């Protein structure tokens, strides 16, 4: 039902691509937001009604009390798998350890803060990714599909870290996000579009691998929807309902940009540019947002081409 009070949402890792968009969406929907950031000075402009608090990503020091004021906690914290630069950083063992530790420690810190809080939030949203499922060619994957066994599938070890909040009576939602399309710096879309801007875009490998994408507006709208819907519990795929093959994506990008669609980009060249995270695009996954749709969520951008027009032409 409708809330009688102002809701406040705590976003850990709120300065990342998804966090910024989510803050904008929540403020637009009349919610207050507190962002936890390891580098609050990086937050140049925040909308009004967004507070930024410093945290170290590993302990409750200095911010733990904020939990008492928040009805919802969203954990987006963790090292960016693609790295910070335009070209992805290689997944060295050191980086894998940083990615793993940052995700485990941030979730543990949030659980500890909630445990210590007198007033506990009603809902906890834990971010995850479709990498969880591993790579299955064109097989359709839903929330019931089992985890894969490569590095990306380590989400199967990271997701449970926040499970203790369920024993505290808190509704927990896990969001497995697809390839996040945004026009901001660091988005996967920029990497896909780049070759087309040089008039050299084409399919990658045989072009048949699936891309399970989501427009940034739908990502943040879906998270807001899951915060508000008391029936939302457990795992949700955050992907548009129409995943496309790589070749379809390439043709759509070429149409939207008015650029030619050329020769296949050899897979080795692509892997050179993308490093191991290239697997997410060269091997592909075909993931459907089955549970989100069952709850009645409506996508603003269910189809790729309108999503691309919105992001690339505006």
Q: How would you sum up this structure in a few lines?
A:
This protein has 314 residues and is an alpha/beta fold.
Q: Which key terms come to mind for this protein?
A:
34% helix; single chain; two-stranded parallel sheet; 314 residues; 13 strands; alpha/beta
**Proportion of β residues?**
15-25%
Structural class: alpha/beta
H-E order: EHEEEHEEHHEEHEEHEEHHHEHH
- Range of helix content: 25-40%
Task: Report the uncertain regions.
Answer: none
Q: Which overall shape is indicated by the principal axes computed on the Cα atoms? A: globular
Amino-to-carboxy terminus distance: 35 Å
Number of strands: 13
Main sheet: strands, sense, barrel: 7 strands, parallel
User: Number of DSSP helices?
Assistant: 11
Strand order across the largest sheet: 3-2-1-4-5-7-11
Overview of the molecule:
The chain is an alpha/beta fold and 314 residues long. It contains eleven helices and 13 strands. It has helices spanning 17-28, 93-116, 155-158, 164-167, 188-197, 216-228, 246-257, 267-274, 279-282, 290-294, 304-313; strands at residues 8-12, 32-37, 50-54, 72-75, 123-129, 140-141, 171-177, 179-181, 210-211, 213-215, 234-238, 244-245, 286-287. Helix 2 (93-116) links the parallel strand 4 (72-75) and strand 5 (123-129). Helix 1 (17-28) packs across helix 6 and helix 5 packs across helix 7 (246-257). The protein starts with 7 loop residues before the first strand and ends with a helix.
């Amino acid at each position: 039902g409708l809330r009688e009070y102002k809701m406040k949402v705590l976003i850990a890792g709120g300065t990342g691509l998804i966090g910024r968009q989510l803050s904008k969406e929540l403020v637009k929907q009349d919610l207050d937001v507190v962002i936890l950031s390891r580098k609050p000075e990086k937050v140049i402009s925040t909308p009004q009604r967004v507070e930024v608090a410093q945290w170290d990503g590993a302990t409750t020091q200095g911010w733990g009390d904020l939990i008492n004021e928040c009805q919802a906690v969203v954990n987006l914290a963790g090292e960016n798998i693609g790295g910070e630069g335009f070209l992805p950083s290689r997944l060295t063992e050191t980086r894998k350890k940083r990615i793993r530790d940052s995700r485990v420690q941030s979730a543990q810190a949030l659980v500890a803060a909630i445990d210590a809080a007198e007033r506990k939030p009603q809902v906890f949203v834990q971010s995850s990714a479709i990498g969880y499922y591993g790579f299955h060619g064109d097989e359709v994957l839903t929330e019931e599909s089992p985890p894969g066994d490569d590095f990306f599938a380590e989400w199967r070890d990271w997701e449970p870290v926040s499970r203790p909040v369920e024993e505290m009576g808190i509704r927990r939602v896990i969001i497995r996000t697809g390839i996040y399309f945004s026009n901001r710096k660091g988005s996967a879309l920029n990497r896909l579009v780049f070759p087309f801007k040089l008039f050299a875009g084409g399919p990658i490998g045989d072009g048949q691998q699936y891309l399970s994408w989501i427009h940034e507006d739908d990502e943040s709208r879906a998270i807001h929807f899951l915060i508000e819907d008391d029936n939302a519990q457990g795992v949700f795929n955050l992907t548009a309902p129409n995943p496309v093959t790589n070749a379809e994506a390439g043709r759509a990008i070429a149409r939207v940009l008015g650029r030619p669609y050329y020769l296949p980009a050899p897979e080795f060249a692509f892997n050179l540019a993308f490093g191991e995270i290239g697997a997410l695009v060269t091997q592909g996954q075909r993931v459907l947002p089955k549970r989100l749709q069952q709850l009645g969520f409506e996508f603003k951008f269910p189809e790729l081409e309108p999503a691309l027009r919105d992001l690339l032409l505006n």
